[in-house]
Amino acid sequence: MSGLLICDCCGGGYTILGKDRYGCATRRAKGTCTNGRTILRQRIETRVLSGLRDRLLTPKLVEEFVRSFAEQMAISSGGRVAGGWSTSESLLTLSAGWQACCAR
Q1: I need a surface site. Which of 1, 12, 58, 84 has the fewest CB within 10 A?
Q2: Per-residue confidence band for 81, with pLDDT thresholds at 50, 70 and 90
Q3: HSE on the CB side for 34, CA within 13 Å?
Q4: Do residues 23 and 37 lie in contact, with contact meaning Cβ atoms separated by under 8 Å?
């Protein structure tokens, strides 16, 4: 996450401070930022992963991915995929897996 998190006070990056906290790198390195707030690594990772799941694993995007994947598999395998499953069987399996993932 270092380099992806930005300090709202100075615009500098957040970096890992100590074992499990993120804080303003500018404050730490130069002492020129007044932002002394930190956040637990686990908390920010949970927030980021939840945001990604909520925005990227929407039913519409999952449906489009599964459709596109199945289409490409059909093109490359002549309508059959590994294990002798048909493309439609694979599509159902993928769709169920993605839907279960989205429900988490």
Answers
A1: 84
A2: low
A3: 1
A4: yes
